[in-house]
Amino acid sequence: MKIRFASVVLMSVLAPAGFGEIRYLAARKLWRLEAGPVSYIIGVNEKNELQSIYWGRRLWRDDDLAAAHTNSEWASFDNYGNTTPQEYPGWGGGRYIEPCLKVTLADGVRDLVLHYVSYNIEGETLRIEMKDISYDLGVTLEYRVFPESGIIRKTATVHNRTRAPMTLESAQSGAWNLPRGEGYRLTYLSGRWAGEWQINREAIHPGMKVIESRRGNTSHQANPWFAIDADGRADEQTGRVWFGALGWSGSWRLSIEQTSHQQVRVTGGFNPFDFGYVLEPGQSLETPPFYAGYTEGGFGEASRILHRFERVNIMPGGATARLRPVLYNSWEATEFAVSEEGQKALADKAARLGVERFVMDDGWFGARNNDRAGLGDWTVNAQKFPHGLGPLIDHVNHLGMDFGLWVEPEMVNPDSNLYRQHPDWAMHFPDRPRTQERNQLVLNMAREDVKNYIFETLDRLLTENPKIAFLKWDMNRNFTEPGWPEAPAAQQKELWVAYTRNVYDIIDRLRAKHPKLEIESCSGGGGRVDLGILQRTEEVWTSDNTDAFDRLRIQEGFSLAYTPKAMMAWVTDVPNFNGRSTPLAYRFLVAMMGSLGIGGNLNRWSESDMDLASRMVELYKSIRATVQQGRLFRLFSPRDSGFTANEYVSEDGGQAVLFAFRSAQDFGYPPPAVRLSGLDEQAVYRVKTIDHKLAGVTETVSGAYLMNRGVDLRLGGDFDSTAVAFERQ
Ligand code: GLA
User: Fold this and answer.
1) pTM over 0.85
2) Which of 132, 361, 530, 544 is labelled catalytic?
């Protein structure tokens, strides 16, 4: 693996000058941001305002580019601010499009017109300073190009340089303007608990489509990612796709707008709903990062660009981060009934399967025998673990696995010592009911004392048990009554931002102090998955829905935006919560398309189940580098028929792995031939099947055959599955 990563790094070092660069064309007042295959161009127009000029495939000729020029007004109803693509518009000066910044100044003025002041280029970062036409309200726009992926990151920082407080009512990270025109199509992700990652595709028409979370965290209901294709024509392999994602785990919003002048623009940042951020004189507010890219390789290539970008540029450890270990989690086996002996027995069995990390889930602390009590009391339950966690951790370590633990630090059960001591620490409005969800309340992490207490509690847990290698960090409800009575009334809405910042701060400090610690982000499944949390966690819990058939669709949606490396997927017992039973091999192969975990009750697995599981874990270890770090091709979608196929190709092209699932057979037809992607036509590949369900093909086969003729699979009946590896000779 090291050799492969080294060659990637080398490639970027040796890339021709100008592969990624930012230049200012002074005569035309244009900035050219070159992010590898993508150009992004901004200009200052004759009104001294910032204008979006171009975003798409890389251009090469400066002389093709004219200076920014405002369009004329459209009668007396739409001035130039509505007819000209705005790069970072304030709400004011007659603009009716979605603003990037909306403010109320101390004297009641609510008009904001931002003019260009200066710029600065440092390597791959451009900073542009803007200022209101009369008030000392400044905005720094920061652009960073990532030439290897074509991705550009935008953030905005608002500065109050006046002598009075001001209230920001909307602070967006930026707006992305697409080439003017119609016929665009939006793809976005929606869902609910146990049904996250549903793919939606719809035409963009005049008006605005909002996808958002008002819930305090990223949410199951929508995810801060979008893809827009031109003419509604893109598919997995081809087509122009503009895509982007926000790095924020609090309330967020994406507004996808087609103006009455046929300008499609995507504005994203903090959710302006119930937003009100007071900037005192001298204070600043930085918005979340907003990342976006462009490709002509369809939705498949858009995903592959993001996957690699996340692994290399976002997630902890970057390109050199290790592969995800095979994990066992106790939740579905024991729920709250954990004990030293019970966990040791499960660990013995997990170790036999080749599991590398054993995670004890909920139930180990305080009076936590069910979901009605104990959250907040992060001390080991002495009845269940009379000698602390030490003996269990040692046992797990002796079996050759490392040890992980479940925590839900942001929450409190009213039936807990913490709540009895500090009822004010829960988010609330005074003298009003506190809505409980799953019998719990949300701690007000915006408060510094609460933040410090949670940091110290987790730090103590990790210091006293230095062999805890991994935390599954859960968050099992959304905000209600988001009050912060201790803060001045005007500042209470800052809770939305401060909460998430402080959660980030705790994780960052814990990681700095315990550098070997790894973390999984969970929020009742996939409720907190975004590029902000991925910057701080090695993996995420994809969904509490572990039904392998549903998972095919869940994982497909997830993979549009996020890397399979981060996608934790467990093999669990059947019948599952849909009442459905699928064969163990099918369940394994579905879970092996991400970061493999096992969550079944191993005490109930037969010897033949254990044998099959051991073989599957062994197989997974031989392909996991390809699955976790390779290029994913979604060949057949589970949304189209009862047949699904996904292929992963390692970055160096040395291995390809095909997974295929026959979830339902109809009319006795055989499955369609599967033509592979991303191989070398001239190369010969050695075939490795696990179950001889590959028809016709002999021991070796050419890339040309695999990509053009394709392979036939002997899959029949319901819930049949197979995996085939192709190794380049
Ligand atoms: C959430 C998680 C589950 C499990 C339970 C424990 O629902 O998503 O995986 O950890 O909490 O209470």
Assistant:
1) yes
2) 544
